[in-house]
Amino acid sequence: METAALIVVLVIALALFFDFTNGFHDTANAMATPIATGALKPKTAVLLAAVLNLVGAFLSTEVSKTISGGIIREDAILSAGADLFLSLIFAGLIGAITWNMLTWLLGLPSSSSHALFGGLIGATLVGAGLGGIDFGMVLSKIVLPALIAPVTAGLIAFAATKIAYSITRRYDGKPDGRDGFRWGQIFTSSLVALAHGTNDAQKTMGVITLAMITIGWQSGAHHEPELWVIIACAFTIALGTYLGGWRIIRTLGKGLTDVKPAQGFAAESSTAATILASSALGFALSTTQVASGSVIGSGLGRRGSTVRWRTAGRIGIGWLLTLPAAGGVGALAALLVVWLGNWGVAIDAVIALVIILGLFMRSRRNAVTPANAMSDVAESGRAIELPDTPPPTRRQVRIEQAKAEAKARAEAREKAKAESKARAKKDAEAKAEKKARAKAGAKAGSKGEKSASSNADAKRNGESE
Fold this sequence. Notes:
The protein is mainly α. Helix content is 79%, strand content 1%. The longest helix is centred in the last third of the chain and has 71 residues, at 394-464.
């Protein structure tokens, strides 16, 4: 029992550290677009996200119940002993944290939620076999929401962006226009941060509650997390959001330069609505995937944008890799537990500590740039190629056509007027020429008569002589 109690303490400590990594890994899901559009200053955004993550953790426990009484069949593992079950949870957390830290360092797209699920599933498969996993719950509460939620959020964001652009005009005379949406972004980004706390903090609560039930410190009749568990997880994820978020949030502030205020407002509204609804239904969503789907959807909702499918494909590959990769690390950690028992737990703890410290020290040597600190939310912004000047709307096309037609009519009138003047001038010249010829002819006739008269006079004078 003493050994089991020690393992529970290690599980709680490791779970809270995972909660911390979840906070700094996913801060940007809420604050990437308001920082990119200038709605919030980076430091203000991180502080606001931390406070709202803290508040959100107290709003619901449905996702926690999914973790503590859903994906893992406790009865199938407890038959082998509580020590083994706790050790497997410990191994699963090592897999989740290792993948979180590694992807944070390398800038690979990842989901903290799926890292946790993958680590727990991989460790359970090694320690208890297929019978230890409730695959129906995994499919209904994790896999299907992971496929449906980003698409749903993207469609909502696409429609919201279309509506936002159709009912507003560029009234402020600035190139981006619609700066009023920046104020709306403060509200919507706050909702996303609140939703992140509501969904993601509960996953750690579920793991700790599962460990407590296993050792008998909490009744298995219900899977509600204890108050102290809720408080601990809430403060830990908030602390991670505030202290650790700088590395990614600075990158995202530069990476999402193409996001305009109206798009950011639509993306954040869609993300918050999707996550809050899923939390109420007990779906353990990846907030990173939902935020990415919303950013892409809002980008496509803007006129003239196109998808860089290579970048979008990279995001999808990162999503697909997270579950099996974290599961593989969790399975390796579980192997040591199965082979060596409590010594395996101790070795796992030492290895986890070395990995965490090593990755952290390695991160301190690197500058924060898009090359080494990028998440799929930032990449989703790059997946949308936007023109510097979007194509004209139908209304603008009609206005330009009307102007062109009016210009053509004016030019036609000027041309007709010029032709009329030219004809009048030509007629005047022809009349003048005719008059000149007539005058010249009359003058020539008068001269001829005078010459004939002179000749006649000369002839008469000669005859008289």
